[in-house]
Amino acid sequence: MGDFGAKARGFSFGLLVGGAMGAAAALLWAPQAGQGTRRFIKDQAKWVGDSLFSALDEIQEVAQKAGTAIPSFGDKESRIQKHIDELKDEIEALRTASEE
Fold first, then answer.
1. Among 18, 37, 45, 55, which residue is least crowded by beta carbons within 10 Å?
2. How far apart are CA 55 and CA 11, in angstroms?
3. Is 30 exposed, middle or buried (0-12, 13-18, 19+ CB in 10 A)?
4. 94, exposed or middle or buried, with CB in 10 Å at 0-12, 13-18, 19+?
5. What values do phi and psi take at 42, rounded to 5?
6. Distance between alpha carbon 2 and the CA centroid of its chain, in Å?
């Protein structure tokens, strides 16, 4: 459980890389015009970001329940919350960058 943050970051990174690879594949084999392709990629990137936020919210909920149920888990809950907040900030920064 000590390397939860690393696992969460690895999962998030894998999800983002997978989304990027899917977007790249869509570009290569897209039968639609450039504007439609860009819209598709933007929609897919938004979906990946929304999915990450949803997964992080679920992780946060589990950590809070564990912190309540297991007294010794309380300090880990705050560390998990810190990692979740950092990941959400990174996702939001990527969203903002993609909208520019």
1. 18
2. 10
3. middle
4. middle
5. -60, -45
6. 20
